[in-house]
Amino acid sequence: MNIDFLSQLQRILRLKDLEAWDITMNDKDCRVIIVDEGRPSRDEDFPWLKDGIGEDRRENHITAHVYSSGSLEESEEKMLYHIAEHLTDHVALAHCHVTVLFKQENDYDHALGRLLQAKGYSEYHSIPLSKFFRFSQDS
Questions:
Q1: 89-104 pLDDT, tens digit each
Q2: Are 92 and 61 spatial neighbours (Cβ–Cβ below 8 Å)?
Q3: Which of 55, 113, 116, 136 has the most Cβ atoms closer than 10 angstroms to its Cβ?
Q4: Is there a contact between 128 and 76 (Cβ–Cβ < 8 Å)?
Q5: Cα separation of 45 and 76, whole Å?
């Protein structure tokens, strides 16, 4: 499985605490939205852990939401997991947890809108074009 990083991986939004990427893999369009939660890790950040994270709470938590409109093969999930991991590997992992959550969603813009709203931003389509003249859209 190959991804042409010049044409099949495109960052569509960069804010101080959220980034969104569109990725095409095996003719499947996906969206990865990385959210800096700006808070310590909590048990609910790890829904697959029955007893929570216990004492291993870190100062910050980052969630990578991976959206696809249909089911993904295990190899595709693994590739998207590694991409999300790569996009967040610059943070101080000794002080920050990163979780990757896979979700099926037909409307990626709606998913992005929910996460933007949760962080206090306006809808993606209401961001003025002038904000896209800069590297980061929140400047």
A1: 877 677 788 899 999 9
A2: no
A3: 116
A4: no
A5: 23
Helix (H, G, I), strand (E, B) or coil at 37: coil
Residue whose tokens read 């939660």: 37
SS3 state of residue 138: coil
Cα separation, 31 vs 108, in Å, equals 7
CA nearest 28: which of 110, 105, 84, 114? Answer: 105
Of 38, 39, 6, the closest CA to residue 23 belongs to: 6
Tokens linked to 63: 């969630």
CB 100 within 8 A of CB 79: no
Alpha carbon distance 138, 125 (integer Å) = 14
CA distances in angstroms from 47 to 43, 44, 83, 100, listed in the order given: 7, 6, 21, 11
Q: Is the pTM of this model over 0.90?
A: no
Q: Look-up: residue for tokens 């991409």? A: 83
**CA 75, 80, 84, 87 torsion-angle sign:** positive
